[in-house]
Amino acid sequence: MSDQVWLATIFETYRKQLFTVAYRMLGSISEAEDAVQETWLRLSRIDVSTIQNIGGWLTTVVSRICLDMLRSRKSRKEETLEAQLSDTLTDHQQVDPEQEALIADSVGAAMLVVLAQLKPAERIAFVLHDVFHLPFQEIAPIIGKSEDATRQIASRARRRVRGEKAARTTNADDQHEAVKAFLAAAHAGDFDRLIAALDPEVVLRDDRESEAAITRGAVALAKKVAGRAQKSAQLALVDGTVGIIAAPRGKLLYVLKFNVTSGKITEIDLISHPERLAKTELAVLAAD
């Protein structure tokens, strides 16, 4: 077996792990694959005998590549939402079943949406420490900061991802239970359960039309949404209260904001316009 073949065999044992790291950071299958491929190219160009811990070396390299890619995005002022969604749908057609399972197990759509709002260094520090449990002394050289500064960056990212400040002001029980029941009924197409979650005079405002479309009344709204909810739709904190985001493969499609009174949903605001989405504060909702 040649040295190059041996090296390729070793690299393949780490490929899935590297892809998971890259996808968590980048939120794009194609970009994650590019990062993994670039990591292989860098490995193939060096004297492997100088590497003491090949797994750690590979994680460090793929993280630096992802950081460069994230900074490049920022310098281009990011892609538009439409371009991201198009890339997502193309990725979906190309991904193989094994990769699909890997993504489903390791990445939450809400997490990817919130991570996308972080600065590159915040995103890298949070993912490497909170998700993959790397020590700050190993993360600091990757983002070019001191260990103490890296710790602060990760802490700031953690607060944004978890929505700690917003969560304390959330009208927890009524809001959570009403929205949770609404989403479950919408996914199941259960008309009666939808009616039960809604105030009879509920109003839905939808900005997907050139002028905001309005649906009034529980019956009309239940007919509109029963069985039609995006499969990717899930609970999240939206501007500090429990709402719903639809984010196929972590690419934000729309959010739903709710007003709840006496356990019934009285108002729903569907936001999908890119400018409005960009101004919406999102955070991951803690598991029940």
Structural summary, described in words:
With 288 residues, the protein is α+β, with helices and mostly antiparallel strands. The chain has two domains: 160 residues, Butyryl-CoA Dehydrogenase, subunit A, domain 3 (Up-down Bundle); 117 residues, Nuclear Transport Factor 2, Chain: A. Helix content is 60%, strand content 15%. The chain has a seven-stranded mixed β-sheet with strand order 2-1-6-5-4-3-7, with helices on both faces. The radius of gyration is 21 Å and the shape is elongated. The termini are far apart.
Give me some keywords for this one.
2 domains; Nuclear Transport Factor 2, Chain: A; RNA_pol_sigma-70_dom; seven-stranded mixed beta sheet; Sigma-70 family RNA polymerase sigma factor; 7 strands; RNA_pol_sigma70_r2; alpha+beta; WH-like_DNA-bd_sf
Outline the biggest β-sheet.
7 strands, mixed
Query: What is the arithmetic mean of pLDDT?
Result: 82
Strand order of the largest sheet: 2-1-6-5-4-3-7
Got a strand count? 7
CATH superfamily of the largest domain: PhyR, sigma-like (SL) domain
CATH architectural arrangement of the largest domain: Up-down Bundle
Q: What is the CATH domain class of the largest domain?
A: Mainly Alpha
* Individual helix count: 14
Low-confidence stretches: 78-95, 166-170
- How many structural domains are formed by the residues? 2
CATH T-level topology of the largest domain: Butyryl-CoA Dehydrogenase, subunit A, domain 3
Distance between the termini: 52 Å
Gross morphology: elongated
- Secondary-structure element order, N to C: HHHHHHHHHHHHEEHEEEEHE
Estimate the helix proportion, in percent. 55-70%
What oligomeric state do the depicted chains represent? single chain
C-alpha Rg (nearest Å) = 21 Å
The helix/strand class is alpha+beta
Strand fraction equals 5-15%
